[in-house]
Amino acid sequence: YMSLLVASVRALTRTPFNLHSTTVSGATAPLLIVSGPVVTKVGLNSGFSVFGPGHHANATIGRAVRLLLQNVCGGLPGLIDKSTFGHPGKFSYCIAESQIRNPWAPVHADRGVAAAGSAVTAFAGEAPVFARNDWAEAPEPILATIADAMLPSHFTGGGVVVVLGPLHAAAMARAGMSRSDVRQSLFQLARRSLGDLRRAGRLPGQPQVDEETTYRTVVPAADDILVLVAGGHLYGYSAVVPSWVGGHESVAVTEALDDEESGRCVVEPARPPGEEAS
Fold first, then answer.
1. Which of 7, 14, 100, 167 has the greatest number of beta carbons closer than 10 A?
2. Which region holds residue 54: left if phi is over 0, alpha if psi is between -120 and 50, else beta?
3. Buried b (16+ CB within 10 A) or exposed e, 247-270
4. DSSP E strand boundaries for 230-274
5. From CA 57, how far away is CA 5, in angstroms rounded?
6. How many helices (H) and strands (E) are present in the chain, helices listed first?
7. What's the chain's average pLDDT?
8. Cα–Cα dist 29/19, whole Å
9. What is this structure's pTM?
10. Contact, 124 vs 29, CB < 8 A?
């Protein structure tokens, strides 16, 4: 996994990512999203329980990054890392995009990497929030459900990762929607009125009548929503990973693996039957 770990470190140390953003009072941790042929090659999980246990590659890569942050960068809880609660992703937070059930090009293809290549995308994210809609087949109700899950309490205008479950992604693809269409729809739907924000104390002053129909979107622009496909394919769920920091203080960064790095990734051996996952 060393090539993936090196690419992850490159992404985390790019200025736009702002590594310090993972030590703030909110519960952000580096979410690593691996995409491309390397996913299958090293045995990364992109399906059932994609955020959970049971797969050596996901756990190892995510844990290695956490140990680097703690033991090399000094990001120890209460010292450098001042997260109020933290979340399990601060132990290990590595997922993969589905190659089989993704109806579009890989997520990295929209981020300057050749579609046939492999890449790691790093995002400073909180714990995932799940959006269940297994009663609708049209994309509109599903998008509305996901947009509801995108509304954070702090409303600071940071980016967001939307992990579409395969059933939700298929519904959108059947309707002729592209990944860009999904981003744009969520951008328009995930919003709160200025009146609501004033009542919640996120804006000063009392709500005015015209502010009940004047809205602020969750993110500054549609491109601040990173959309990928992963998770189990039997139920109608998607996941939203919000950020804590506001605006563009920290943005997702994608690092490609070159041919040499991809070649050094070795095939994950099959686990013997009955052996417990680490």
1. 7
2. left
3. eebbbbbbbbbeeebbeebeebee
4. 237-242, 253-257
5. 11
6. 8, 10
7. 91
8. 9
9. 0.91
10. yes
